Automatic annotation (TrEMBL):
UniProt feature, compositional bias: Polar residues: 8-22
Family: Belongs to the G-protein coupled receptor 1 family.
Natural source organism: Bombyx mori
Chief location: membrane
Name of this protein: G-protein coupled receptors family 1 profile domain-containing protein
A Pfam short name: LRR_8
Residues making up the signal peptide according to the UniProt record: none
Keyword set includes Cytoplasm: no
Length: 761
């Protein structure tokens, strides 16, 4: 590029221009700005001649009004200015747009960092203008650019704007017809737009349109994009929209709606006739594109009807053409010009017949219909290619569903499947739910309504039953959602995963899991201490101490369950509402803490039960021939083994696969992990009430006492009394119960059994 010395001009200080090092070309690298600006020596005005045109840059200027007089007074010839840029104008309040007419060669107009520039009057006709940008300024509304190319000098069929960039302003409204322009790209990013009104782009021809970063944008009118006949790319990322209209998006090829969790529903893929790529926020929206027949059965049926009609019409045309070819005579020399004309006319007639048959089919094949005549504007003629496209479809007819490249695609955490995934798991979870809910409700009902003195074991049993009941309620919520959304979960996924229900379910799951682990640990420690130090009656955990310990357990469990509600991990990452997704180090630490708590609790329980088993004599001695005592010990040992085995079966697989996932080597995906998280892990919730309460003698006594208090089922009370009364023998008075012999010599076994009876008798 050849540079020529410009005429002497006033100093930069006089013209309000700042300067930069000589002969330095800098590229203004904004998202949608492709302008090359020029800086010159500190003692020269900021301009230079580019291909017989002038590029002017006003850097850090103090001007308040941008006028032709100011530029002319600074020594610029307005008729040769091609690029006008203002970079940093803290006092600029007004742009005299009428003076821009005096710059007939103006190709680019750029203003940035002008916070006091709130409005720009409608621009006049500027036939050469290609770029219009006002960024990081104080604009409150979109300037009217609809008349930029309304000029006799402008070729209306070719004139267009390469870029309109209004990024980073304070724009709240889009006036009607303000953007009725021909433009390659229009950027309204990072503004304060709250709504895109009806026909905001009426009669416009915009190829790429972006609203990215308008966090207050919540509503798009159903006809917001109607009348824009050339829209190929649309970006609505990082907004707050809840729905997406389809009018005007029939020709859309690339759709971006990333980081927009508020988008609840995605239209059917059949509404986007030419969509090739979609960058969305939710996995289940890509599932909707992948399975359109499930996403919108009515729309899919209409599509199949349209396909059948098109196949029928294509077959009819092919048969008609085949009959036409068979009816033609062999090629013969043409000697008469009239015959030549007749043959050509016959061939044209055949072509027109086929075209006429297709011409009326567009109204059936197109799901959007046609725009009203007043919406077509002067640009409608360039997209009127119906006959050509339909004729091409017959030659390349394909009945398979269109494949759209969609992200985020379904993955291990969010597969395109139902909540339960497998039929056997769907049936099994109801069995677990019934056992967990009924069993724990029964335990709470008996323990809380019994009027005997509240003991430490009873208190701990109430806490354990409540925590396991929460697990049952969590599974019940999952089972109900799975039953309701069977076969089409991704249509319900938004309401479930981002609704209150999933947050409640996730909170119940984590809270119950942690509280159950803590309660079981305290129960085991209390039993170990009571049995190991049985002769020290004064060394017992008091009820007040147990209450303080459990209060700490409740607080810890509530904290761990509440952290995902505060942004540490997330319950909405999967359909089973568990915080399994790790996005940052905080999520990893949180999940690691959950697994570590369970691991420590399980090790503690195993060690304590081994010590209890050893303190009872190992279950193998017969105590000098007293086999009854040995049998009682073995029964207790077997029950402890059952408890440990249940804990191991429930916690060990989840802990193992959880640790491998945190280590970056996941061995199972969520589809198979549901078997662990929904089936194995909650087994404790339905096993604990039976192992720790319902199957014990103490619980049966309390239950019969409760039944007797109601005055109902007297036959059950009498049956229980008979079963617990020892039978008379020949050595005793038939009316006197037999005297019980001591079972253990070295240790008072009756004392141990009494201490242990509340849990495992």
């Amino acid at each position: 590029m050849r540079r020529r010395e410009s005429n002497p001009r006033p100093s930069a200080q006089h013209s309000g221009l700042s300067t930069a090092p000589p002969s330095q070309f800098i590229e203004h690298d904004r998202r949608s700005t492709y302008q090359t600006l020029t800086r010159v020596n500190a003692n020269q005005p900021v301009c230079c001649q580019l291909s017989e045109g002038v590029s002017v840059v006003l850097h850090q200027t103090n001007i308040t009004r941008l006028t032709a007089r100011a530029l002319h007074a600074a020594g610029y010839h307005l008729h040769i200015i091609e690029h006008l840029s203002i970079m940093g104008a803290p006092k600029l309040e007004h742009v005299v747009v009428e003076d821009l007419i005096r710059m007939p060669r103006l190709k680019s107009f750029f203003i940035t960092q002008a916070p006091l520039l709130h409005r720009v009057a409608p621009l006049p006709a500027l036939p050469e203008l290609r770029t219009f940008m006002i960024t990081t300024s104080g604009l409150l509304e979109v300037p009217n650019l609809s008349h930029v190319h309304d000029s006799r000098k402008a070729n209306t069929s070719l004139s267009y704007l390469q870029a309109i960039d209004l990024e980073g302003n304070h724009i709240k409204t889009i006036p009607s017809h303000a953007l009725r322009v021909r433009a390659d790209q229009v950027s309204l990013n990072y503004n304060l737009i709250e709504e895109v009104p009806k026909h905001a782009f009426k009669n416009a021809q915009i190829s790429k349109l972006s609203f990215k970063g308008n966090t207050k944008l919540k509503r798009l009118d159903e006809h917001a994009f109607a009348g824009n006949l050339l829209l190929r790319q649309l970006d609505l990322s990082n907004t707050a929209i809840t729905s997406l209209p389809t009018k005007g998006l029939e020709k859309l090829q690339i759709l971006r709606i990333e980081r927009t969790p508020s988008l609840k529903y995605i239209p059917s893929i059949y509404e986007f006739q030419q969509l090739e790529k979609a960058y969305l926020t939710h996995h289940f929206h890509c599932c909707a594109f992948k399975f359109p027949e499930i996403h919108n059965p009515a729309r899919h049926k209409l599509y199949e009807t349209q396909m059948a009609m098109m196949m029928q019409r294509c077959a009819s045309i092919q048969k008609s053409q085949a009959r036409k070819r068979r009816s033609l005579e062999p090629i013969r020399p043409v000697t008469d010009g009239a015959q030549t004309v007749t043959a050509l006319e016959d061939d044209d007639a055949s072509t027109m017949t086929a075209s006429e048959e297709y011409e009326n089919f567009e109204e059936y094949f197109s799901d959007s219909g046609s725009f009203e005549d007043d919406d077509q504007g002067e640009f409608h003629d360039i997209v009127n290619d119906t006959v050509v496209s339909i004729s091409a479809d017959c030659g390349n007819f394909n009945t398979r569903n269109r494949n759209v490249e969609c992200t985020p695609a379904s993955d291990a955490l969010n597969p395109c499947e139902d909540v339960m995934g497998w039929s056997w798991l769907r049936a099994s979870v109801w069995v677990v739910v019934a056992a967990a809910v009924v069993g724990n409700v029964a335990v709470l009902l008996v323990l809380l309504t019994n009027h005997t003195e509240l003991t430490v074991p009873r208190f701990l049993m109430c806490n354990l039953a409540f925590s396991d009941l929460c697990t049952g309620l969590y599974l019940l919520m999952l089972a109900v959602v799975d039953l309701r959304s069977y076969g089409e979960f991704f249509n319900y996924a938004y309401n479930w995963q981002y609704g209150v229900g999933c947050k409640i379910a996730g909170f119940l799951s984590v809270f119950s899991g942690q509280l159950s682990v803590i309660t079981l640990t305290i129960v085991t420690l209390e039993r170990w201490f009571a049995i190991t130090y049985a002769i020290y009656l004064e060394r017992r955990i008091s009820l007040s101490t147990a209450a303080k310990i459990m209060l700490g357990g409740w607080l810890f469990s509530s904290l761990m369950a509440g952290l995902p509600l505060l942004g540490v991990s997330d319950y909405s990452s999967t359909s089973i509402c568990l915080p399994v997704e790790s996005k940052d180090i905080g999520d990893v630490i949180y999940q690691g803490s959950l697994f570590l708590t369970n691991a420590l609790a399980w090790v503690t329980i195993v060690v304590c039960y081994v010590q209890i088993y050893r303190s009872l004599g190992g279950g193998g001695e017969n105590y000098g021939g007293r086999r009854a005592a040995a049998a009682a010990e073995r029964r207790i040992a077997n029950k402890m083994a059952l408890l440990i085995g249940t804990d191991l079966l429930c916690w060990a697989p989840v802990a193992f696969f959880g640790v491998t996932a945190l280590a970056g080597v996941p061995l199972v995906d969520v589809s198979h992990g549901k078997v662990l998280l929904v089936f194995f892990y909650p087994l404790n919730a339905c096993a604990n009430p039976f192992l720790y309460a319902i199957l014990t003698k103490q619980y049966r006594r309390d239950f019969i006492t409760l039944v007797a208090r109601t005055g109902q089922c007297n036959w059950l009370v009498e049956k229980y009394k008979l079963s617990t009364t020892p039978p008379p023998t020949a050595h005793t008075n038939p009316s006197t119960p037999a005297q019980l012999m001591p079972l253990v010599d070295q240790k008072n076994h009756s004392q141990v059994s009494k201490e242990f009876s509340d849990f495992k008798a």
